[in-house]
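Re-run requested by the PI after the first attempt was lost when the workstation crashed. Everything re-entered from the original request form. Ligand of interest: manganese (II) ion.
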Amino acid sequence: MNKPIIGVTPLWDSEKDSVWMLPGYLQSIEAAGGIPIVLPLTVDQGNITQLLGLVDGLLFTGGQDVSPTLYGQPILQQCGELCPARDSQETILFQEGVLARHLPAFGICRGLQFFNSILGGTLYQDLPTQKISELIHEQKPPYEVPSHCVSMIPDSPLHQLLGETALMVNSCHHQAVLELADRLTAMAAAPDGLIEAAYMPEMPFVWGVQWHPEITPEHDASGKLFTAFVSACAAGKS
Ligand code: MN
């Protein structure tokens, strides 16, 4: 049987004016039995619709902060760099690919924040000034070294998948979920209460995690997450 093809949202480097990609996202999909294709950065609705016909699932990658305009709030001075093209492209991908076609989707870091924003939740625009915490959520390199613990919500799909009640994860995020969207359910939280994983119960597979499993492919939990995602993409193939 043909392997599932996973569309990967492109990264954007504003200094180099360039689209780019981190190999860990692609290697993790391949290791889990899928074929990744990096999508072009486009906001052309027709092109995105046609591209959606080529893929069996979508990986929403990390990157710039999500614009607060997506959830109807003013942009604070402390908000980080934005990427309007990514916000626009991912909005179309999510509405047409995930909500309309029920394509499996996995969101990493910005990906989780984006899912929450597009579904009506809100974000901390700048964690260091907006949330008092003893944890550092924007760790220094090396990023493959775990920096804080997350606790699984008992009996959540993530808890069932990993078979663990706690997990050490890396943490390289400037924003995070503030109010969780009604259509999302939390699956894991940091000791300071921040939501670190959530999913959409009504969909075959729409999961987001706040940490970066693609940087730690040698961790059991990273492989299990990508395998669960790619398996859902394979199961949904027509
Ligand atoms: Mn964190």
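Saved to the shared folder this time. Residues 84-100 form the longest helix (17 residues).
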